[in-house]
Amino acid sequence: MHRTQRRAHGPFAAGCTCFLASLAIFAAFASAQQPPPPTPQPPPAPTATPPPESNIPQIDDVHSDRQELTNGQKTQHHMGHVELVTGDMTIYADDAWYYTDEHRFVATGNVVFAQGQNRITAEKAEFDTETRLGTFYTAWGVSSVKPPPQRSGGIAMPQMAGTQDATVIFFGETIKKVGAKKYEILKGGFTTCLQPTPRWDLLADKITLNIDHYTLMRDAVLSVKGVPMFYLPVLYYPTKREGRATGFLIPTYGQSSLRGQSIHNAFFWAIDRSQDATLLHDWFSKTGQGVGAEYRYNYTPTGDGTLRAYLLDQHESVYPQADGTSRIFPASRTYEIRGGSNQALPGRIRARASVEYFSSIATSQTFNTNIYDISRNQRFFGGNLVGAWSSYSLNGTFDHREYFYDTTNSVLSGSWPRVSLTRNEKPLFGSAMYFQFSTEYAHFLRDQRTATGDVDSSLDRFDISPQIRFPFKKWQWFTVNTTASWRDTYYSRKQDAVTRQVLDEDLNRRVYTLQSQIVGPVFNRIWDTPDSGYAEKFKHSVEPFLGIQRTSSVDNFREIISFDGIDSFVGGTRYTYGLNNRIYAKVRGNPGQTAQSREIVGVEVSQSYYTNQGAAQYDRQYQTQTGNEAPTHFSPIALGVRAFPTNDINGTLRAEFDPRYQALRTVSAQGSYQWSNRVQVNGGWSKKSFIAELIGFNDPAFLDHYVNGSTNVHTRDNRVGSVYSFNYDVLRSSLQQQRVSAYYNAQCCGLAFEFQSYNFGAGSLSPLPADHRFFLSFTLAGLGNFSPFNGALGGVPR
User: Fold this and answer.
1) pTM
2) Looking at 203, 221, 241, which one is the last position of a domain?
3) Is the pLDDT of residue 684 over 60?
4) Range of the domain at 637
5) How far apart are CA 275 and CA 747, in angstroms?
């Protein structure tokens, strides 16, 4: 089930469930004062040959080298290679007394209890052959456990480290079987570490084990490398035969310059096979504490979803500054809610909803560790309903967004409701022309909120738009796609054309458009390269294109309050022209596979010319059009480059060049490399240049120049791995954030840590200029783990 940014869930007892359930016949744990002895082995087969497997008796059957009978043959003393067979269980010993009238079997000397692949070795055992209850003294053993199979359609099992759920070593001073599935163990413990010196074990003075129900441990201590790590006076967890079980998760430790030391605790509730919940508590030594919860469900294919809520209660904190002064971080109680849902409804309707909402932007930008969450200035919630029937589709949307400039100034946007009905394209009267019709009603939200007051520009809009399309595809090397449309739009409010003041007066706009998309003539050239070690053939394709759009004049354009592209028709003719260069390769696959053709390089150059100079300010196909630049006939020149030389390497570049001032406006590039699913490297670069004559590019405070990168490296079995990422502000010569995490998953335990350094920058809401964060987490074989809700250890698989 991530998020990714995904957290591995697993209850503290989930892995224990498998092995504890397998102990339905013995339930043993080791001495708390000493490490467990080496894995016990059954003694050599006795000289007396046991009955054939097909004749295994269901009553007691004892074999030994020799025996003595007393008390009227009611008492049997067996000596040498003693073997008691009762049902599917066998007890081996050097010496044993069998009181047949009391149904009591007392064994001493190298006692071994065996059932299937499970073994217990003890110094002494007392066993009731009738009730099959008994006691083992100074006992230890080993159990081979197979986890239950995954269930399709349910929530995924927790991801554990290595092969941790295969074998369990257990030991105890006294193990008493008091019921069919109930045991009492004194001074015992267990581990799943198979090394000669176990890396960890869980010890307790008293353990009550109730198979398929619960396990209760008193004075429990978790030791790692012989060092006690956690103590709990009482520990309760279930012992059900299920892959996911309710229980406490292993705590995570953290440290931060801003919030001090922290302990993150969580409780996992496996509601059923398709839903679960996690309850979390955080303690911070400098600032206070937080509580949170996450609910997940997965009812494939009808729906799935996640909802997470967190409340942070911070007391007032004082932070010394570099200049000797102190800065006070006031007390606050803030919350954050995140989630998403996808649900199928009757009538071929599907519903979706999402939320990323916080009550305090200051807390959001200082508490989270993910750079996206730290830099996020927007909160939102919304959803939509989508339905499709024959050639009609319906879309209903609710969207509420608020963008913050600081703690007091923000702008609210969105729509509620927004409903559109579309009749999909179909041939018109059986001709080569296609007809489409769409209509939409929306109530748009726009509220400029400041400390001095609000400016509300919200309005209702109703739009109707039929269109006819005629495609010309007679020649592959030359195609023309022509569309004629008419759009009638009603607005419940408008703005003054000069002062831009919002007026409570309605407005109607009609606009006609005629556009053609022309591609060609297309020129191709093919090279056969049979001797090439890369591809059998290469193909170079040159595709000139021209787009012509004629829009009728919109006289009341400046009175329209613009929300999206429907409101951006200015009038006049726009010519968009450019050239596409594509290189294809018929790349050889693995031996025995057919070569496949794919694009390996693509380069596109484009620009637009406007007969109406005002249209250049509102063309949304160019990223740098701000609406504030001086009118011009020409748009920026856009360059797009994409390269996919192999399945493991890809890169893109995007740039926009200003033709008037002969300067580069923006440029950005991204690339990635992946090797054998063990190495992933990603990098990015972006720059916004300074242009003195161009509004939006002539203020150094609003320029940027960034470099970012990330690397994920791990072994084939994912036992050892590391993740590193950084974001560097080249313009200000500042490392914005640097994050490194690493993990080691052995057979029986694992260790994960993360370190992050984040520079908040000048004018930030944080009382410190930078925060240094450290997180540490242990993973024990078969025991669940988790990542803190603020995003720490999010990239470490455990």
Assistant:
1) 0.75
2) 241
3) yes
4) 457-658
5) 29
